[in-house]
Amino acid sequence: MTTPRSARPRPSDPSPGSLEELAGAPLSLRERKKLRTRQTLRREAVRLFAEQGWEATTVDQIAAAAEVSPSTFFRYFPVKEDLLLTDEYDPLMAEAIRARPAGEPFLTSARAVLVGLVRRMLSEQERAELYERMRLAASVPSVRARMMEGAGQPRGMLLDLLTERAGLDAPTLELRITAAAISAALTETSLYWADRGGRDDLADLLDLALEHLQGLAAH
């Protein structure tokens, strides 16, 4: 007797619980469904990339493994590369930074929030998945190129927050540079971590990188 496809074991099924805990509030049913679909697509994709390689894995295969249609895939990820470069944590970062003291230097706020978020969100499974994503980002030319274009980076979110905190209608050059520098620090830290086999503590590396940025800003 053939086991129905929907009944097969799915050890990689994601749980939105950790994201809900980080957000400090329960997600709506619609938000939970969207989150589950995004995470399932990404985790099935990472599994397939590990099994058969980046080039050999198609969007149709990923969608089938996640039990959704290809059109659903493209609603969540415009291109295959974005599976590796985007996540669900930007809104949490934005709200947490807004909750920091208004007079606090922005780099201090960003460092506290980003390092704290990384420490709290990386379970063993999430750490392994992030490592595989960053390893592919470093080794697959099309993913590296899209990353260098800024895809998946929180630069826009950071710039909005900087502009909001400054009470301006439009960002200045200095604010654009600050947002770009923080975003670049996140990217380069993740790539450095993956280049070293993921053996370091990612939160410690990020703390070091943002401390370095603070030092540069002080001079």
UniProtKB/TrEMBL annotation:
Which terms are listed as keywords in the entry? Answer: DNA-binding, Transcription, Transcription regulation
Region named Disordered? 1-24
Cross-referenced InterPro entries, in alphabetical order?
Homeodomain-like_sf, HTH-type_TetR-like_transc_reg, HTH_TetR, MftR_C
**Recorded superkingdom:** Bacteria
Domain (HTH tetR-type) spans 35-95
Question: Which ranges of the sequence are annotated as binding DNA?
Answer: 58-77
Q: Which GO terms describe its molecular function?
A: DNA-binding transcription factor activity; transcription cis-regulatory region binding
UniProt protein name: TetR family transcriptional regulator
Organism of origin? Kitasatospora phosalacinea
